[in-house]
Design a protein that fits this description.
Elements: H1 6-23, E1 27-29, E2 39-40, H2 43-51, H3 54-57, E3 61-64, H4 71-79, E4 83-87, E5 95-98, H5 114-118, E6 122-124, E7 138-142, E8 147-148, E9 154-155, H6 161-171, E10 175-184, E11 205-207, E12 212-214, H7 232-237
Parallel strand pairs: 3-4, 3-7, 7-10, 10-11
Antiparallel strand pairs: 1-2, 4-5, 5-6, 8-9, 11-12
Helix pairs in contact: 2-4
């Protein structure tokens, strides 16, 4: 179905969505939004739709990407007494686990940055830290998306962080068998088609300011890290991956 170079096709979709968000003044932060996944107008409504899902309400452990669109969602996870697992920016310092009993000063419905979360959480950045994740069974995974289709295909900003985050959760066996993946986007971030590769993470639910979509036609989810695609350069940029992979000299 997808002829030609998949990388070029994905870049074409990204440029189209970035131009749309900028032209229609839909991106809130960061601005300009090109090269990033921005928070968008109406994001509070989209966040509320995610948190009303029964699978979210039933999950004691929740993962959220650290990107801007999920800042309100992260605050809501902790406000509802759930354990939050998130990633450090760029996965450079691994994962962060924040337990609600460690949160000081109360929580309002305001976005939570990584810096704020770091005050209350514990970093998991090496093999010796993995014990901090004991007992964690994540039932709800929220990842950010630049573009989506109604059948669950998604596209990030090109850095592959969402895909790596999901693969790491798989490798660490932190996901329940019935765990779901959700994302939130503006309605203008829907596209007709997105080419999906083996490492690309599809979604089960898509929340927008105006609607919630439960995906019926599902793509298979990656089973873990695809090791032959990881280079030394990747390990230099994401040292946490050395927990799973090493290269002999």
């Amino acid at each position: 179905m997808f002829g030609g170079d998949v990388f070029k096709m994905k870049e074409k979709i990204r440029k189209k969505v970035w131009n749309c968000l900028a032209r229609n003044d839909l991106a809130i932060y960061p601005r300009p939004c090109r090269g990033r996944i921005p928070a968008f107008r109406g994001i509070l409504y989209a966040t509320t739709r995610l948190t009303r899902l029964s699978v979210f309400k039933d999950s004691q452990y929740v993962f959220s990407s650290i990107d801007h669109p999920l800042a309100l969602f992260r605050a809501e996870v902790l406000r509802r007494g759930k354990v939050l697992v998130t990633s450090s920016p760029g996965l450079r310092n691994g994962l962060l686990i924040v337990r609600p009993e460690n949160v000081r000063g109360g929580l309002s419905r305001r976005p939570l940055s990584f810096r704020a979360l770091l005050r209350w959480g514990e970093l998991v950045r090496s093999k010796s830290d993995l014990a901090k994740l004991g007992g964690v069974e994540i039932g709800f995974v929220a990842i950010s998306s630049l573009a989506v289709t109604s059948n669950g295909a998604r596209l990030g900003d090109g850095r592959g962080l969402g895909d790596f985050e999901f693969a790491v959760l798989r490798e660490l066996k932190l996901l329940r068998r019935d765990s779901v993946v959700a994302t939130l986007v503006h309605d203008e971030q829907f596209v007709e088609e997105i080419p999906m590769e083996l490492h690309d993470v599809p979604v089960d639910f898509i929340a927008t300011p105006s609607r919630l979509i439960k995906v019926e036609q599902k793509y298979p989810k990656p089973l873990g890290l695809i090791r032959d695609k990881i280079t030394v350069d990747f390990l230099d940029r994401m040292p946490f991956l050395r927990v799973f992979i090493s290269f002999s000299p």
